[in-house]
TrEMBL record:
A Pfam family of this chain: Methyltransf_23
Organism: Brachybacterium huguangmaarense
Identification of the protein by name: Methyltransferase domain-containing protein
Bias (Low complexity) ranges: 13-22
Gene3D superfamilies: Vaccinia Virus protein VP39
Keywords carried by this UniProt record: Methyltransferase, S-adenosyl-L-methionine, Transferase
Residue ranges, annotated region (Disordered): 1-22
GO molecular function per UniProt: methyltransferase activity
Alphabetized InterPro entries for the sequence: SAM-dependent_MTases_sf (IPR029063)
Ranges of biased composition (kind: Basic and acidic residues): 1-12
Presence of keyword rRNA processing: no
Length: 246
């Protein structure tokens, strides 16, 4: 669920005539298949926002990357001083991420990857039921979710709220998302994008206590891309940065 420039990133690939009966884990394992899916490059907006965060010390702190895919964002965080955990439902993706971190020369104490169902994590009554074995318990200083969308069922808002609860006082939640369907999405297919939220809608869905949370960024950014037919196009990304009260 990491950023890619492919049509599938936006859910615009042809939809099956019959409902997909695979579990989320089966779907994403099949999606990753035998070849790399993503570019291996950090999401530019995530890097830009995180790179401008004021640091309270020489070491930025602990970071959690949700839906890390093959690890590009998590590796960038670790390279910039964050002690990072990347989590994804796909064991294939997290293994590729682990190998990419090794190739980047990152030590084990700086970055770890875990395969876990985040929907189950969000629904867990306590850490004893945590499918990650407690690795996601926190506290974290930063949680990132870059294009954290899924074409199969995902308890996205519940996951983001659970992740927010792991943040230490003063910690930040950064959500970079698709705010609208791409212009090349067929009109008949746009109902599949009903779950896409702009930053205001995202903030309302999270329903976090405004006394305990400060909104530092809530904006839509336009990005120049190339559509599936090779033509220039423009898409809208939502950026929401929240900070937990110190």
């Amino acid at each position: 669920m990491e950023h890619s420039a492919s049509p599938d990133e936006h859910g615009t690939a042809a939809r099956p005539a019959t409902p997909d009966t695979r579990t989320a884990a089966q779907y994403w394992e099949d999606r990753y298949g035998t070849e790399h899916v993503w570019s291996g490059t950090v999401n530019a907006t995530t890097a830009a926002v995180v790179g401008r965060l004021p640091q309270r010390s020489a070491a930025p702190g602990r970071a959690l990357d949700l839906g890390c895919g093959e690890g590009a964002d998590a590796i960038w965080l670790a390279e910039h001083g964050w002690d990072t955990i990347g989590v994804d439902i796909s064991t294939t993706a997290t293994e590729r991420a682990r190998l990419a971190a090794l190739e980047a020369g990152l030590p084990d104490e700086r970055i770890r990857f875990v395969a876990a169902d985040l929907s189950a994590w969000a629904a867990a009554a306590d850490d004893a039921d945590d499918p990650s074995g407690g690795l996601l318990a926190g506290p974290f200083d930063l949680v990132t979710a870059s294009f954290f969308h899924s074409t199969v069922e995902l308890a996205r808002t519940a996951i983001l709220c659970r992740a927010a609860a792991t943040l230490a006082p003063g910690g930040r939640l950064l959500i970079v998302s698709h705010a609208a369907p791409p212009p090349w999405a067929p009109e008949h297919d746009r109902h599949g994008h009903a779950e896409l939220l702009d930053p205001a809608g995202e903030l309302a869905a999270l329903a976090l206590d405004p006394v305990r949370w400060r909104t530092e960024l809530a904006e839509t950014r336009r990005r120049q891309v190339v559509d599936p037919d090779g033509r220039p196009a423009e898409i809208e990304d939502g950026v929401l940065l929240l900070r937990r009260a110190a």
